[in-house]
Design a protein that fits this description.
The chain is mainly α and about 45 residues long. The chain has one domain. Helix content is about 55%, strand content about 0%. The chain has three helices and no strands. The radius of gyration is 21 Å and the shape is rod-shaped. The mean pLDDT is about 80.
Length: about 45
Amino acid sequence: MFDKDQKKPEIPHRMSRIAFPKAKYGVYLAIIFIVVVLLLFYKDSIL
């Protein structure tokens, strides 16, 4: 009975056609982006 009282959140019409990537790929992309930026900033001290 409790489940029937709660409404399922509706997805906005424009967002329903977009396929969102999994969250773990976003985390991987963010880590790679941070590593690349840090390599660019500190390439003189690394080499």
